[in-house]
Each structure stands twice: as structure tokens, then as C-alpha cells.
Amino acid sequence: MQTEAQVADSALTNIRKRNTDEESGGGEEARKETTYGLGGAYMDMAGVNGHGNPHLQHANLPPAMRHFRNVAGKPAILALSAFSTGACFLGIVNVGLISSELLPTVAPPAFFYSGFCQIVAGILAFANNDNFTGVAASSYGAFYLAFGAYMVFWTQGFFGPISIIQLQHGLGAMLFGYIIFNTYIYIASFMLTLGLMIMFFFVEMSLILSMASLYGKISTVPGGVFSILLAATGWYNAATILFEDMFGRPILFNPLMTDIYMWLKGRRRTMSST
User: Fold this and answer.
1) Which of 47, 57, 114, 150 could form a disulfide with 144 if both were Cys (CB 3.0 to 4.6 A apart)?
2) Once rounded to an integer, what is the mean pLDDT over residues 166-172?
3) How confident is the model at residue 18 (pLDDT cuts 50, 70, 90)?
4) What is the pLDDT of residues 34-81, one digit of tens each?
């Protein structure tokens, strides 16, 4: 009977052989499970030691993803779903599909779903050694908690004699901080999936345009449109992971950016040789 170390060595040898086949143009079937999603397939034989073996990762994964553990499920599904729901509601208000007077009704879902649930998802992501999801989910969970608090405090008069203009300027200052935060999160997403990269681009545009509207430079519609777009891509990313987990194979197209970079590199090599 093979020991755990022998099983790990054998699996690592097979993975190296598979990656060699991929570089030579073969092995497409062997690698398709890690091509279109961030689900459980990103850890080959993760159950060898019960917590995932960092030596058994797909070699094409970005370094940060090679050390994921699967001790707390896949909290990114919850984080993306909660984030997208809050963004969609705000987008609907900002584009004028419902009255802006209903904006305070965002407070309950902002507190409990988009806020609290995202923070829980972020903590679980840190347990999985998934720092990207942990930082992003916790930070945007805090964003929605703060936004909900703004709405409650303002409607209940806790801010004292403050005008709507002053409130908007305060929210604009908060958005400016999140623009800076989202900029480096967006850059980091270039090492994850295409869907996440697109989503965080929409987040960046939504934050910038929403801040401009809060300072009276433009209307709320452009920021609302990008909020709805980021919600749609966020739900798509969540569905990608959930479907892969449920069906055991990729269902929705969401390639790793590293795979796209390798494909582009191969295309350039092919074009230069012709």
C-alpha cells in the first residue's frame, strides 16, 4: 500500500506530465477542468491530506491560488452574490427605475446581506488562505455596513442639522477611499479570472462616476448603469463557481487570465513563425 507521500509524489508527477503535454499543444481534455472556473477543480487531489495539498496544484494557476485550502467551503460564492445584490439595488435607484426616496430601504439588505454576509465570507476565505477574496469581501462588506449606517443615521437625525448636500459630500469622500482600494484590487484580479477582472473594472467605473454624481458634477445615471453591470458580472462569477461545484465540471465560460496569457503567447509564437 502506498504511503501518503508516495501518493503525493505520484500525483505531482502526473500533473507535471500533463502540463508538459499542454505546452506541446496536447492534454486539452486533461486541463479543461481548471480552465473555466474557480471551483474545486483548481486543487488536484485536494483530499489527499484532508485539507488540500499545496504541492498538488495546477502549475498554471497564479501563485496566490496554489496554496488555497478547502476547509471552509467556497465563500466567494456568498461574497459575490451578496456584493452583486447590493450593487444592483443601488444601480436601480441611481438610474431612476425606482424613486430615490426609497434609498433608505437599502439599509436592511445592506446591513445583513451585502454587509454582514460579505464579512463572514471574507473571514471564511482567510481560513482557506484565499487572501484576495478575504480582503475584497471584508472590505466591501464594511462598505455596505457603513452605507447602511449612513442611511439610518441620516433618516433618524443622528447627524444633527446636516443637509443632503453635506451627506452626499461625506459619502463621496468614502467612495474616494474605495476608489483607491479598488484600483489595486482590480490590478490583482488580472491574475485570477476574466470574469473577475471585468467585474472589478465595472466596480472602478461605478465608484468614480458615483463619486462625481455625489459632488454634483454629473447625474446619477452613469454610475447606476455601471452598478447594474457589475452586479450582472458578479452574479455570473458566483454562478460559475457554484455550478462547477454542483455539477463537478465547468458550466459557464470564465477562463483563468493565466490561461488567456498563455494562449496569446502561443498565438504570437505561431504568427511569428509563419
Assistant:
1) 114
2) 87
3) low
4) 333 333 333 333 333 333 333 334 555 666 666 666 667 789 999 999
Using a pLDDT cut of 90, give the percent of the chain over it.
42
Q: Under DSSP, is residue 65 helix (H, G, I), strand (E, B) or coil? A: helix
What are the phi and psi torsion angles at 50 (to 5°)? 90, -20
Residue 143, C-alpha cell as written in the block: 462598505
pTM for this structure?
Answer: 0.75
Task: Give dist(CA 235, CA 81) in Å, integer.
Answer: 6
Q: How far apart are CA 138 and CA 159, in angstroms?
A: 26
- Percentages helix, strand, coil for the chain (3-state, rounded to 5) are 75, 0, 25
Cα torsion for 90, 96, 99, 100, to the nearest 10°? Answer: 50
Cβ-based burial of 61 (10 A; exposed 0-12, middle 13-18, buried ≥19):
buried
Residue 57: beta bridge partners? 43
Give the length of the chain.
Answer: 274
Contact between 148 and 119 (Cβ < 8 Å): no
